[in-house]
Amino acid sequence: MDGSRLSEDANVRQAVRYVEFRQCCSADFQQLHISRTCLLRIRSSRKTVQCVAGAETTVQRGEFVYLRQGETLRIGNIIGETGQYLSEGLVIDDAVIKQFLRVHPNPPHARELRKGEMACGFRDAFSHLVASLRSPALPDRITTHRMQELLLWLQLNGVAHRVHASDALKHRLRALLENDVARPWKAPDAARALAMSEATLRRALSREGTSFSRVLRDVRVTSALSRIQTTQQPLAQIALECGFSSQSRLSEAFKTRFGITPGRLRAMPKPFARIA
Q: Which CA distances in Å does 48 have to 42, 68, 115, 234, 270?
């Protein structure tokens, strides 16, 4: 196999997505499940990240932060003098990382590094990949090589890549629901999709300390959070796309979960310069 190429099922244009996050007020988000690995560069203000049993990490403007799929984190976006939190980054499917690690295993010095400086070459690699993702005319092989270059830069900065592996039913259920969050899910539907009875589904989730309704509610509200931060879609549209019957239902669930309303969180649609 040619190690420089991704397999068809891990096509980089389908498996890597460019995103921009923005907020107009400081907010702290507890127990956020990271559904896809995410590499972010802070453009304005700062970010705090804390794992369940770890110290808090502060990420300053210009630094990168690496959030791994499967982690549950406490994340804060803290507004600075600019009056707005801005970050940009890449959401990366595990298939891309898995294929990369077959050719480039983590070196002995690699560790669970969370953040770091984005030196010139690293920053250029990021910019080149973003340009490739936004340029359909570029050959896919070029985009693939640029993705691998960026992952190599992370390794050189001491970051250990890893593929999320979990047999927990709550994670399998979460992945199922996230793939069609607007669907009016019921426990029997999810059980059939997971090839088990409803009773088995409920018992297994109870043993894991959760329930079907709790997982569904969290998937819907965290999906809405992502859309609020990364799009300018109307809140009513976001509510429907995330399975809520109305914008008011979304606002109620959102404030209960995060202690802030969607309207308060959302930033004005103010463009910002991309990485040069």
A: 11, 15, 10, 28, 23
Q: What's the rounded Cα separation, in Å, for the pair 254 and 217?
A: 10
Cβ atoms of 160 and 110 closer than 8 Å? yes
- Render pLDDT for 70-102 as a digit per residue (tens, 0 to 9): 999 999 999 988 889 999 999 999 999 999 999
Same domain as 251, residue 203: yes
What stretch of H or E contains 30? strand 27-33
pLDDT digits (tens, 9 = 90+) for 175-196: 999 999 999 999 999 999 999 9
Angle between helices 212-230 and 198-207 (to 10 degrees): 80
> 128 and 182, same structural domain?
no
Question: Quick check: 275 and 269 in contact, CB under 8 A?
Answer: no
User: Do residues 261 and 268 touch, judged by C-beta distance below 8 A?
Assistant: no
Q: Are residues 17 and 152 in the same domain?
A: yes
In this structure, the number of other CB atoms found within 10 A of the CB of residue 157 comes to: 17
56/50 Cα distance (integer angstroms)? 4
Spatial strand order in the sheet of 63-67: 16-23, 85-92, 37-44, 63-67, 115-117
- Domain-embedded: residue 13: yes
Judge if 115 and 17 occupy the same domain: yes
Residue 150 neighbours by CB distance under 10 Å? 22
Strand, coil or helix: what is 23? strand
Note the Cα 107 to chain centre separation in Å: 25
Distance between CA atoms of 56 and 115, rounded to whole angstroms? 12
Q: Are strands 27-33 and 72-78 parallel, antiparallel or unpaired?
A: antiparallel
